[in-house]
Design brief:
Oligomer: heterodimer
Structural class of chain A: mainly alpha
Radius of gyration of chain B: 24 Å
Helix content of chain B: over 70%
Strand content of chain A: under 5%
Structural class of chain B: mainly alpha
Shape of chain B: globular
Largest interface: A-B, 92 and 91 residues
Helix content of chain A: over 70%
Largest sheet of chain A: none
Order of helices and strands of chain A: HHHHHHHHHHHH
Distance between the termini of chain A: 47 Å
Number of strands of chain B: 0
Radius of gyration of chain A: 26 Å
Chain lengths: 300, 285
C-alpha cells in the first residue's frame, strides 16, 4: 500500500467501502424487492392482464377492468367513497379522543406519565380479533347490553335491539376502539418533545392558556396529529376483518370487496384493480403527508 | 401559574382519561369474565368454572394452530431481526448515494394496507406455481412458508426502528478502539457491537414476534390449509358455543405475552447492571 499513490489508495478504499455497504444492504433490500416490490408489481400487471394465472385468463393486455371500475358504473366506486367517509370519521374521532390524553400525559402528569401511557397502549397488545369480538359479545342480540335489558325487564327477550350490531355505526365504534391506543403514542411523543419554555414565553408575553394552546402548542404538535391521522386512516381504509365480524351488509367496506374478489368470487383480475387502486390512493396520501409522518414515533 | 392547564381543565382531563381507560378495558374485562362463566357469553352469569381453560388442552386443532403460529412467529422474527440489524447498521453508520430512497423503501411496509399486501403475495405465489406446474410439473403452494415471507416484510420496519436508536447511541470510538487493538471488522462486530446491541435485538424480536403471532389479514390469504392461530380463531368464531373456550385461550396467550415482555425487561436490566452503567446504551452518549 505504501507504494501506491495516495489518490489511488483512497479510491481503492472508497471502492472497498462501497462494497461493504452494498454487501450489508443487499439482504434486506433483496428481501423487500422479491417479496414486497415484485408482488405489488404483479398485481399491477395482473390488473391489466399482462400475466395469466388461471387457464381462463386471456393473457392479453387490456384496460377493460380499469375502465369498468373508473367509469363509476359499478357499485365499487360508491363503496370506495363510503369507506373513505367511514375511515375519515374514524380517524378524526380517534385523534380527537387521543389528543387530550396525549396532552394530559405529556404536559400535566409529570410523575407517572410513562406508566399511564403504557396503560393506554397495553390493550393494543391483546389480540386484534379478540378486541373486535368483545364488541360482538357486548352488542349482539343475546349480548351483554340486550341481556341486561332483558333481565331488568326493560325489554322483552323476543325483541332485542338489533341495530346495535351489524351496522356501519358499529363498525366505526369498534374501529375507534381498536385504534385509540395506537394513536396516543405519536401524539404524546410530539407533545412530550415540546420545549416547555416556549409555553412559558407565551405566558410571559401575555397570552392566556387558551391562546397559548391555539397559537403555540397546537401548531407545534400538528406533525404528530397528522402522523396519527395517517396511521389510522391507512389501515382502516383497507379494513375487512371488523366489517366481517360486526358490520353485516350495511357495514360492508371496500376492503371486503377486495377480499371477496380473491376468496369467494374468483375474479382476481378485477380484485387486483381494486387492490391496486387502494394502493395508489394510499401512496398519494403518503406523498402529500409523508413528510409529517415521523416513522420513529410508532416505535417507542 | 401552571401554564398547560387551569385547575378546571386539569380535572376535566383527568376525568376524560379515566373514562377512556374504562372504555378501553371494560370490553376486555367482560371477555375475561365470560371465560370463567359456565355457559354462553350472556348475562345473567351462570356458575363459576375453569373448564374452558382445561378443555383447551384437549382441542388438538386449536393446539396445532397455536404451534403453527409459534413456528411462524419465531422464524419470521429471527429473519426480521437479522435483516433489521444489517439495515440499521447501514442506515446509521454508513454514508452512501440514494440513502433517503433506501430508507423510504425499508419503511414503506409500515403504510401498505395488509389486505393489499396479502393479496399481492397470493397473486405471486399463484403465478409462480402456474409457471412451475407448466414447466416442471411441480409447485410450491401456500402454507406457513408463505406466511413467514409476508410477516418478515411487515416486521422489518419495526425491528429497524427498535434497533436504530440504540445503535445511534453506541459510541463509534468503541469500534475504533477494537480496530486499533487489532480486531477485524467481523471480530469487532461479533465481540463489541453485537453484545452491546443485544437488548435492542431482544425487544426487536419480541415486537416482531407479537406482530406475527397476532397477524390475521396476511395469514388469511397465505396460510392455505395450515391455519395459524388468528386464522383458526376467526374460522371458529362462527360457532358461538366455542366462544368461551377461544376467549380462555386468548387470555392465556395474553398473559404469556405479558410474562415474556416482563422477562425480557428484567433480563435487560440485569444485563445493564452486569455491564455497569458505562457500557449500557445511556451511559455511552
Amino acid at each position: 500500500m505504501a507504494t501506491l499513490e495516495p489518490a489511488v489508495a483512497r479510491r481503492r478504499w472508497r471502492r472497498h467501502d462501497r462494497g461493504v455497504t452494498a454487501a450489508l444492504l443487499s439482504p434486506p433490500l433483496l428481501w423487500l424487492l422479491l417479496f414486497f416490490i415484485v408482488p405489488v408489481g404483479f398485481i399491477a400487471a395482473y390488473s391489466v392482464g399482462a400475466i395469466s394465472i388461471f387457464p381462463t385468463d386471456a393473457g392479453v393486455v387490456s384496460f377493460e377492468d380499469w375502465a369498468r371500475f373508473l367509469s363509476g358504473d359499478t357499485i365499487y366506486t360508491g363503496l370506495f367513497w363510503k369507506s373513505v367517509r367511514m375511515s375519515l370519521t374514524v380517524s378524526v374521532v380517534v385523534v380527537i379522543l387521543a389528543y387530550p390524553v396525549g396532552y394530559f400525559l405529556a404536559l400535566c402528569a409529570s410523575k407517572r406519565k410513562y406508566v399511564l401511557l403504557l396503560m393506554i397502549i397495553a390493550p393494543f397488545l391483546t389480540s386484534y380479533l379478540l378486541r373486535v369480538l368483545a364488541w360482538k359479545v357486548i352488542l349482539g342480540d343475546s349480548g351483554v347490553v340486550n341481556s341486561l335489558l332483558f333481565s331488568l325487564n326493560l325489554r322483552s327477550s323476543d325483541d332485542p335491539i338489533q341495530w346495535l350490531l351489524y351496522s356501519q355505526f358499529t363498525v366505526m365504534v369498534v374501529l375507534v376502539y381498536v385504534w385509540v391506543p395506537f394513536v396516543a403514542l405519536p401524539i404524546f411523543a410530539s407533545l412530550d418533545g415540546l420545549d416547555r419554555s416556549l409555553l412559558e414565553a407565551a405566558g410571559d408575553l401575555g397570552a392566556g392558556r387558551l391562546k397559548t394552546f391555539w397559537r403555540v402548542t397546537l401548531p407545534l404538535s400538528l406533525p404528530g396529529v397528522v402522523a396519527a391521522f395517517v396511521f389510522v386512516f391507512v389501515p382502516t381504509i383497507g379494513e375487512f376483518v371488523t366489517p366481517l365480524l360486526v358490520g353485516g351488509t350495511s357495514g360492508y367496506m371496500y376492503g371486503n370487496a377486495i377480499q371477496d374478489a380473491f376468496t369467494r368470487g374468483i375474479d382476481w383480475q378485477f380484485g387486483s384493480v381494486l387492490a391496486m387502486f387502494l394502493l395508489l390512493v394510499v401512496a398519494g396520501l403518503m406523498l402529500l403527508f409523508g413528510r409529517f409522518v415521523q416513522v420513529r414515533s410508532v416505535a417507542a | 401559574m401552571e401554564i398547560a392547564a387551569s385547575k378546571g381543565a386539569l380535572l376535566l382531563m383527568r376525568l376524560f382519561f379515566a373514562l377512556l381507560v374504562l372504555f378501553l378495558y371494560l370490553p376486555i374485562a367482560l371477555l375475561a369474565l365470560f371465560s370463567f362463566n359456565d355457559g354462553d357469553p350472556t348475562f345473567p352469569l351462570e356458575r363459576f368454572t375453569t373448564h374452558w381453560y382445561a378443555d383447551v388442552f384437549g382441542n388438538q386443532q386449536l393446539i396445532n394452530a397455536l404451534i403453527r403460529s409459534t413456528i411462524v412467529a419465531t422464524v419470521s422474527s429471527i429473519l426480521a431481526v437479522g435483516l433489521g440489524v444489517l439495515a440499521s447498521f447501514v442506515l446509521i453508520r454508513r454514508r452512501f448515494f440514494g440513502k433517503p430512497a433506501v430508507s423510504a423503501l425499508l419503511f414503506s411496509p409500515l403504510v401498505i394496507p395488509y389486505l393489499v399486501f396479502g393479496v399481492s403475495l397470493l397473486v405471486v405465489f399463484a403465478a409462480v406455481d402456474r409457471f412451475l406446474t407448466d414447466s416442471f410439473g411441480v409447485y410450491i403452494g401456500l402454507g406457513l412458508h408463505a406466511v413467514v415471507v409476508g410477516h418478515v416484510v411487515v416486521s422489518l420496519p419495526y425491528t429497524i426502528l427498535t434497533i436504530m436508536p440504540l445503535l445511534e447511541r453506541l459510541n463509534v470510538s468503541l469500534d475504533e478502539a477494537a480496530k486499533d487493538l487489532g480486531a477485524s471488522p467481523w471480530q469487532t462486530f461479533r465481540r463489541v457491537t453485537l453484545p452491546l446491541l443485544f437488548p435492542a435485538l431482544v425487544s426487536a424480536f419480541l415486537i416482531a414476534f407479537t406482530l406475527s403471532f397476532d397477524e390475521f389479514a396476511i395469514a388469511s390469504f397465505l396460510a392455505g390449509t395450515e391455519p395459524t392461530w388468528p386464522v383458526f380463531l376467526f374460522a371458529s368464531l362462527r360457532v358461538p358455543s366455542q366462544l368461551p373456550q377461544l376467549i380462555a385461550v386468548s387470555s392465556m396467550v395474553f398473559v404469556a405475552s405479558l410474562m415474556l415482555v416482563a422477562a425480557a425487561e428484567i433480563g435487560r436490566r440485569l444485563a445493564a447492571r452486569r455491564y455497569g452503567s458505562e457500557f449500557t446504551a445511556r451511559g455511552m452518549v
